[in-house]
Amino acid sequence: MSKGWVHGGTDALGVPAHDFSTNRNACGPCPQAVAALQAAHCAQYPDPSYTELRQQLARFHGVDMQRIVVAGSASEFIHRITMHAVRQGAQYVSLPPHHYGDYPQAAQVWGLPVVDRASHAAGPGLHWACAPSSPLGLNENLDMHWTDTAPAAAWRVLDCAYAPLRLVAGPRLPFLDSVWQMWTPNKALGMTGVRAAYAIAPVHTDAHELAALRQLAASWVVGAHGVAMLQAWITPAVQQWLQASLEQLRHWKAQQLQLCADLDWTVLPGHQANYFVARWPARLHARMPEHLAALRGQGIKLRDATSFGLSGCVRMGVLPPASQQALALAWTQLQEREMA
């Protein structure tokens, strides 16, 4: 993991015309969710306890309302539960080999060492997993690490950011009631500019622990637009739109995988969702930053996967054919200039 916390999306050059660097649903923004935001009651504070929203989310997931914790975003909850775990005695953070940068960033802020998950899965720490994984989009084999209920001094958090964007059916996870689940629907809805998330606590979480975690949040941690997005997320119309979008994404992904083959980029195997990692030819690795900058100058942004521990690779969200064609043209022109 390199120093510095790298994110995809908008940068100092503005919004990329063809943004392969994020994993948002390229079929979005979801029209029904946009309509809900437009109708949001912006003149009023939301209910600070988010009572109705938590009831709705609980019904959607089939859990008790008390298990729902509203969060400002995935990043906000990552930092908050890390702070909570530190206060409760966590001694380290364990991570999979490749992972989202905010997990170790939060650990660093709170002085927790980062350790390998496989050898510390049952120890007194905060343990992270993502299914499908980021950045590879793999099915993580969690059964071997998370077979039993977490010990009293351990917190296990499953990042479900990409679960709604699976393009291939994933394995059944029998242990969901014994881990924290973190949900960020804005990616699936194609509207990552709206920040709101929620977590589902393990079924036997003590009420005092839930209260302590909620008290660590700022007042009105989610604004009116975030509430509107989360309420839209669980409606039948939005879920139907999501399912239709997955069919479109499967088609676009097949085309994008073929494009990578045509460009002589090697796609790493096992990807299950609307993103994957591709390795550039070895001769280009040394000049990768320069090439990425040149592509960015033409409105095309790719995510350098070095920060994930995958040097020479880019993570690519699936985009429509027009963006794929723009990438193919820009890459061809770049290679022609290299050879001239």
Description:
- By secondary structure, the chain is an alpha/beta fold.
- The protein is 34% helix and 14% strand.
- The chain is built from nine helices and 13 strands.
- The strands form three sheets. The protein has a seven-stranded mixed β-sheet, sandwiched between helices. A four-stranded antiparallel β-sheet has the order 9-10-13-12, with helices on one face.
- A hairpin with a 7-residue loop joins strand 9 and strand 10.
- Helix 3 runs parallel beside helix 4.
- The longest helix is centred in the C-terminal third of the chain and has 27 residues.
- The two termini are 36 Å apart.
Q: Any low-confidence stretches, pLDDT <50, length ≥5?
A: none
Tally of helical runs:
9
- Spatial gap, N to C terminus: 36 Å
DSSP summary, beta strand count? 13
Largest sheet, described in full?
7 strands, mixed
Quote the average pLDDT.
92
Strand order of the largest sheet: 2-8-7-6-5-3-4
Beta fraction of the residues?
5-15%
User: What is the subunit organization of this protein?
Assistant: single chain
Cα-atom Rg, whole angstroms? 20 Å
Residues in helices, as a percent range: 25-40%
Helix-strand topology string: EHHEHEHEEEEEHHHEEHEEEH
* Shape by Cα distribution: globular
Q: What structural category do the secondary elements indicate?
A: alpha/beta
Could you write a compact summary of the structure shown?
The protein is α/β, with parallel strands linked by helices. Helix content is 34%, strand content 14%.
Q: Notable features of this structure?
A:
single chain; 340 residues; alpha/beta; seven-stranded mixed sheet; four-stranded antiparallel sheet; 9 helices; 14% strand; globular
